[in-house]
């Protein structure tokens, strides 16, 4: 690969290196910033001196929470999104308009605003109504809650996790819905006509003929949407869900390691998202 | 006032696509067990007409009765009707995500409520009938066009239909595959099935048709038995059309 580089390429690289060198110099010189990279590993995996064992510290906890939330939210988003996609293709005008309205509202309001609105108007009320708080605290106090902790993290925080997942899923469902709709509409009309002409109802036609073909087609864009969701999950730190971004804010506040903490967090997101995108690309090539 | 010997009765059908007048005052009767072949230039409304017969298109005015059931948009019995009326499409429209066997069993299982064993037994009978029992576990994309169309015919037959509609069943096929499909259709005609076939295969028409219909610009121009139709058609336009497709 290096052989392909010509002298203009080297020039560009040299200019870039110079630019970053200057930024570096400014930070070092004017900010008088003291780098403490050596402390970062202990915030990922800490050593508990009393119990003499390693434990997942603040950053790793955050990463685990982000992964949990992303998985649950994408499952929910897939369900909501599929319903939304089907609704967008409905023959009933009211259903179609409701789905369209939901979608356009979500697409034309900034994500942060959407998150706050969903949080205060929806998930908060839901959590109160279901009395999730008491239920979760009960489990947190119980003895054998290992499975629960593995699945949902610290149970005391369970209600906040639930609202985070709901908010994120509702937000992403709009995009999943559009993907599913495109998939449904890509199925040739002849397929629906053939289904109808052997006497299938509209629902059966969707369930047995259109959806299975559509879902197969939309796996690649859905996989990309899943990666987007992981990145978007940082937004819910605003409603105090204790995921990676929130934990980083905490860490920065207490330790003042602004650059180290944020760079580490960025690296975490990058590694997760980039390896997933490579993995999906490989799986897709295999499928062909 | 349904007559027992009448399978399809259309009275004064009109059909519009926006401003386009696709069917103009079409009246026609298909008897039980009758084989009708419809031909005519493209855009003459042949396909539209037979697609009205199982409610894939809705006529805008007039009256249409199929097997004693009145067909109109929103008719509650339309699904019952479609189980009786099979349709074979130009583009086959097999379900690509299902195997041949599953293509044949999904209708009987989901619509008629048969068990898998029952449905598979029926399916294998009809696969034999269309001469491809060995392809049961392949996917449609693995078959030739002629084989796919024969599977499509079997799929309709599996619903135990009483009427079969064919919408240019051989037009999308390579020439060497046309006969294998036509042979199956000729055999099917021998079972006493009511058939309405839109096609330009005049050899087939001569062999099986009881009635020939010629359509042009949304109207039925000529209805006659094949003898008269091929030797002495009453309309000039029909004579011209036949000359064009027969003389070469």
Detailed description of the structure:
The complex is a heterodimer of chains A (288) and B (248). Chain A is mostly helical. Chain A is 77% helix and 3% strand. Chain A has two domains: 1-33; 34-287, Orthogonal Bundle (MetI-like fold), CATH 1.10.3720.10. Chain A contains 13 helices and two strands; from the N terminus they run ααββααααααααααα. Chain B is an alpha/beta fold and 248 residues long. The model of chain B has no long low-confidence stretch (mean pLDDT 90). Chain A binds chain B through residues 188, 190-191, 193-201, 204, 208-209, 212-213, 216, and chain B through 54-56, 79-80, 82-83, 85-87, 89, 91, 93-97, 106-107, 110-112, 152, 155-156, 159.
Give the beta-strand count of chain B. 10
Return the structural class of chain A.
mainly alpha
- Rg of Cα set of chain A: 24 Å
Within CATH, the superfamily of the largest domain in chain A carries the name: MetI-like
> What coarse outline of chain B follows from CA principal-axis ratios?
globular
Radius of gyration of chain B: 18 Å
CATH architecture tag of the largest domain in chain A: Orthogonal Bundle
Total beta-strand segments of chain A: 2
**So how many helices of chain B?**
9
Task: Provide the fold topology.
The complex is a heterodimer of chains A (288) and B (248).
Chain A: H1 7-31, H2 40-44, E1 45-48, E2 53-56, H3 58-88, H4 93-107, H5 111-130, H6 132-141, H7 146-152, H8 158-185, H9 189-197, H10 202-217, H11 219-232, H12 244-255, H13 258-287
Antiparallel strand pairs in A: 1-2
Helix pairs in contact in A: 3-4, 3-8, 3-12, 4-8, 5-8, 8-10, 8-11, 9-10, 11-13, 12-13
Chain B: E1 6-17, E2 20-31, E3 35-39, H1 46-53, E4 61-66, E5 69-70, H2 78-84, E6 85-88, H3 100-110, H4 116-129, H5 145-157, E7 163-167, H6 175-189, E8 194-198, H7 202-208, E9 211-216, E10 219-224, H8 226-231, H9 236-246
Helix pairs in contact in B: 3-4, 3-5, 4-5, 5-6
């Amino acid at each position: 690969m290096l052989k392909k580089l010509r002298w203009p390429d080297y020039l560009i690289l040299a200019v870039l290196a110079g630019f970053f060198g200057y930024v570096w110099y400014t930070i070092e010189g004017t900010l008088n910033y003291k780098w403490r990279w050596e402390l970062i590993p202990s915030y990922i995996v800490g050593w508990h001196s009393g119990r003499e064992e390693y434990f997942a510290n603040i950053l790793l906890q955050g990463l685990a929470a982000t992964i949990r939330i992303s998985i649950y939210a994408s499952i929910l988003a897939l369900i909501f999104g599929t319903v939304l996609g089907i609704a967008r293709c409905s023959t009933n005008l009211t259903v179609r308009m409701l789905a369209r309205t939901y979608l356009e509202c979500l697409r034309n309001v900034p994500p942060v605003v959407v998150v706050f609105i969903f949080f205060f108007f929806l998930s908060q009320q839901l959590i109160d109504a279901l009395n999730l708080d008491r239920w979760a605290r009960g489990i947190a106090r119980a003895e054998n809650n290992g499975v629960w902790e593995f699945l949902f993290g610290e149970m005391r925080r369970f209600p906040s996790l639930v609202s985070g997942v709901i908010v994120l899923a509702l937000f992403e469902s709009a995009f999943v819905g559009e993907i599913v709709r495109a998939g449904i509409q890509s199925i040739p009309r002849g397929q629906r006509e053939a289904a109808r002409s052997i006497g299938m109802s509209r629902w059966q036609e969707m369930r047995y003929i259109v959806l299975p073909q559509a879902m197969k087609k939309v796996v690649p864009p859905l996989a990309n949407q899943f990666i987007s969701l992981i990145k978007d999950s940082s937004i819910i730190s605003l409603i105090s869900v204790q995921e990676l971004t929130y934990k980083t804010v905490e860490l920065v506040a207490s330790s003042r390691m602004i650059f180290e903490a944020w760079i580490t967090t960025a690296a975490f997101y990058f590694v997760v998202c980039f390896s997933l995108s490579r993995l999906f690309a490989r799986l897709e090539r295999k499928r062909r | 006032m349904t007559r027992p010997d009448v399978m399809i009765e259309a009275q004064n059908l009109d059909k519009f696509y926006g401003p386009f007048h696709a069917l103009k005052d079409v009246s026609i009767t298909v008897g039980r067990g009758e084989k009708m072949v419809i031909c005519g230039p493209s855009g003459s409304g042949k396909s539209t007409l037979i697609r009205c017969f199982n409610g894939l298109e809705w006529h805008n005015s007039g009256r249409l009765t199929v097997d004693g059931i009145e067909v109109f948009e929103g008719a509650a019995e339309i699904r019952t009707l479609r189980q009786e009326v099979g349709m074979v499409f130009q583009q086959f429209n097999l379900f690509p995500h299902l195997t041949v066997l599953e293509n044949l069993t999904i209708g009987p299982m989901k619509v008629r409520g048969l068990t898998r064993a029952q449905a598979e037994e029926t399916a294998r009978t009809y696969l034999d009938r269309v001469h491809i029992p060995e392809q049961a576990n392949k996917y449609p994309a693995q078959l030739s066009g002629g084989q796919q169309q024969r599977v499509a015919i079997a799929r309709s037959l599996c619903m135990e239909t009483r009427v079969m509609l064919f919408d240019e069943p051989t037009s999308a096929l390579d020439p060497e595959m046309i006969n294998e499909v036509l042979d199956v259709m000729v055999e099917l005609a021998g079972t006493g099935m009511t058939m309405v076939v839109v096609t330009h295969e005049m050899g087939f028409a001569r062999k099986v048709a009881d009635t020939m219909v010629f359509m042009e610009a949304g109207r039925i121009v000529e209805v006659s038995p094949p003898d008269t139709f091929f030797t002495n058609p009453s309309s000039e336009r029909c004579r011209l059309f036949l000359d064009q497709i027969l003389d070469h």
